[in-house]
Amino acid sequence: MLPSRTVEKSVVIIPTYNEAGNISRMIDAVLTQPEGFHMLVVDDGSPDGTAGIVNKRMADFPGRLHMEQRKGKLGLGTAYIHGFRWALERGYDYIFEMDCDFSHNPLDLPRLLQAAQNGADLAIGSRYKTGVNVVNWPMGRVLMSYYASYYVRVVTGMDIADTTAGFKCYRKVVLQTIPLNEVRFFGYAFQIEMKFLTWKYGFNIVEVPIIFTDRTEGESKMSSGIFKEAFFGVLQMRWKSLFKSYKRNG
């Protein structure tokens, strides 16, 4: 008899805070796709009942919809790291980051998965790989985001068009290699730092062009403080890298 092929598992991690208007639609959009994705919602004590909605929907997708509840708003980066550890403990092979507000189109998930299955250690849903593919953002925010990515490229040396993207698929080896307990930033700069570490450890990064559409339900979590953290955080990352050599394990 031929040996049976190991089935690879994928999980989409979605941090939530006050996403009651989006979460049920997002559950359906991700979990009804033929690829058989799983979903982990990491909810930071949403007062609008987001967690209650997820709890009710678990019966619709037994064994595929999961939730981790945390007390208080602890930050985007800590939510993802919590999710990464949860996913690694359960043997997931492909681990996604995705927003709950539909700015990332769930129908692009299979494209990121395919890129990872074809050799990308990190597949990035990129707004800027083929120009500026952003819908419904004010021009000021488009320019801020675009030039933020340019600034990161100049300071770090990474050849990535969309360095601040939050729509990603990791192969598990990346998250097993990066020392997650040493990740320093937990706001906007978290997305930059994770790409920087992936790059410094020598993993293959591929950008998959997407169209980014601003949210229509709920409120944006962006603030001037988040951008400030990113601006100075990039300089700290670069400075630190001058004094530390990174080696890919295994």
Describe this structure in words.
The chain has helices spanning 23-31, 50-57, 76-89, 109-117, 139-156, 172-177, 188-200, 224-242, and strands at 10-16, 38-43, 65-69, 94-97, 122-126, 134-135, 168-171, 205-209, 212-213. With 250 residues, it is α/β, with parallel strands linked by helices. It has one domain: Spore Coat Polysaccharide Biosynthesis Protein SpsA, Chain A (Alpha-Beta Complex). The strands form 2 sheets. Strands 3-2-1-4-7-5-8 form a 7-stranded mixed beta sheet, sandwiched between helices. It has a two-stranded parallel sheet with strand order 6-9. Helix 2 (50-57) links the parallel strand 2 (38-43) and strand 3 (65-69). The chain is globular, with a radius of gyration of 18 Å. It starts with 9 loop residues before the first strand and ends in an 8-residue tail after the last helix. 39% of the residues are buried.
